[in-house]
Structure formats: structure tokens, C-alpha cells
Design a protein that fits this description.
Immunoglobulin-like; five-stranded mixed β-sheet; alpha+beta
Length: 256
């Protein structure tokens, strides 16, 4: 018996020739097809690999083989729990790192194993990050603010800004992530950002803004004072006129 190894894929013709003692010969040929053999493949997909305890994860087992049929799935979640379905759901109740193993059997005799790491962390409080295009300037000063959050959950967060000036009440707050704000009046302002995650955990970060006087702010201050003086003078004048009118009206009514 002769053995031969084909190292390349393709179609080959093997021929055997036999001679007898009289010198007569006979030949026979067979066709051999050599294909590229692929080992069975198994893989794991999940909806997440990191989260806080207790952590619920959806697992999906995937396997492929050109020639063989899948006969079984077996999961080992690394915490003492197992499953024999293709797409299990599993709770991780304790913090730590877990290696989840999937073993796929083909034709009840060939097994392929793969794994994935799951990290279960403790409840995480988000950390607010506040930056700005400037921290000082002359009034009026427009400043761009940028909000961000450091959170291992990478979930959704809400942003709430407080600008501390109150010049225009409806504009002293913002719920945009990256708002801009104009400081019209000189002063020192404590601008704060409150970041809240999906679970209601929050963190506050504050920055100090220095707004200095300018010719415009002096002008606005004079205009404001003038307008206020005119307003109060008119109010006082109106009150006096109404009072005098009421007094004389009562006198004339009494005489009649």
C-alpha cells in the first residue's frame, strides 16, 4: 500500500500501472478532488459585556460547519450556572469578571469551544465634567459651555445648567448638553452643571466666571438706572395725582 499526501487543493489524477512477468501491462486511473478543509466555527454575541450588578445579559450562540450538523450547545457562565439552549439569558448577581464558555457539538462527536469575558461592576455614580470657552471677560460676554459625563455604563444622561446671573430669568438655566450664555452684568458667577443618569444618580460640577466692567456695561448700568428712576418717578407722580384727585373729589361731594 502506498500513501501520498496532497498539500494543495485541486483535482488530481492518480494512475497505477502493473506489469506481469511476460512484460504485459495494465493501467487504471482515478480522479481525486482535494478541497480546503475548514474547521467548525463557534462564536458568541451579547447585548453587553460590562454593566453593574445585578446584570442581565442576552447571549447568542453561533456555529458553522460545511459538512456537519450542529447537535448541541452547552454554556458555562463561570458562576456555577449552565445552559443547553442556543440563545440563553443569564443574570450575574455578584461583581467580578466571568469567562463564559460555549461548547458546540457537531454530529455528536466533534466539539468546538469559544469564550467571552463579562465584567460585572458595582453601582457607579456618574462624574460630571464641565469646561468652557472662557472663564473671564468684559460685559457683555458670551461663553460656550460644554458638558460631559464619565460613566462606565455609557447610558443616557440628562444635563441641567445654572448660570447664577438672573439678568433674564428665563435664560438663567439650560437643559442642553453644550449651551452658550451671555453675561450682561459685571460680577462673579458660580456656573454649575448637574448630570443625572438613567437610574437617578447625579453629580454636580461648578466653575467660577469673572465678568468685568466695560464701557458698554457702564452705559447699560446708566440706562437701567435712568429707566428705573423714570419708572418709579412716574409711579409716584401717578399716585400723588390720584390721591389729590380723590381728595378734591370728596370735598366737592361734601359741599354739594
Amino acid at each position: 500500500m502506498i500513501r501520498h499526501t496532497y498539500s494543495k487543493q485541486g483535482t488530481f489524477f492518480a494512475t497505477i500501472t502493473v506489469w506481469d512477468n511476460a512484460g504485459a501491462k495494465s493501467s487504471d486511473t482515478i480522479e481525486i478532488d482535494v478541497v480546503n478543509y475548514q474547521k467548525p466555527i463557534a462564536s458568541i454575541t451579547t447585548n453587553k459585556t460590562v454593566g453593574k450588578s445585578p446584570l442581565l445579559i442576552n447571549f447568542s450562540g453561533n456555529a458553522y460547519d460545511l459538512e456537519r450538523k450542529i447537535s448541541s450547545y452547552h454554556w458555562d457562565f463561570g458562576d456555577g450556572s449552565t445552559s443547553d439552549i442556543q440563545n440563553p439569558i443569564h443574570w450575574f448577581n455578584e461583581t467580578g469578571s466571568y469567562y463564559v464558555w460555549l461548547t458546540v457539538s457537531f454530529d455528536n462527536r466533534i466539539e468546538v469551544t469559544t469564550s467571552i469575558e463579562i465584567n460585572v461592576i458595582e453601582k457607579y455614580i456618574p462624574h460630571a465634567i464641565l469646561t468652557s470657552s472662557s472663564i473671564s471677560g468684559k460685559a457683555p460676554k458670551k461663553i460656550n459651555f460644554y458638558g460631559d459625563c464619565l460613566d462606565s455604563d455609557n447610558g443616557n444622561h440628562s444635563y441641567h445648567w445654572f448660570f447664577d446671573d438672573g439678568f433674564l430669568p428665563k435664560n438663567k438655566e439650560s437643559t442642553e448638553q453644550n449651551p452658550s450664555h451671555i453675561f450682561w452684568i459685571p460680577g462673579i458667577y458660580q456656573v454649575s452643571l448637574n448630570v443625572t443618569d438613567e437610574d437617578g444618580n447625579s453629580d454636580i460640577e461648578t466653575i467660577t466666571i469673572h465678568i468685568h466692567e466695560s464701557k458698554f456695561s457702564d452705559f447699560m448700568s446708566n440706562v437701567t438706572n435712568y429707566a428705573l428712576n423714570r419708572f418709579f418717578n412716574n409711579i409716584v407722580k401717578l399716585i400723588i395725582e390720584r390721591s389729590i384727585s380723590n381728595i378734591f373729589g370728596n370735598i366737592f361731594s361734601f359741599r354739594n
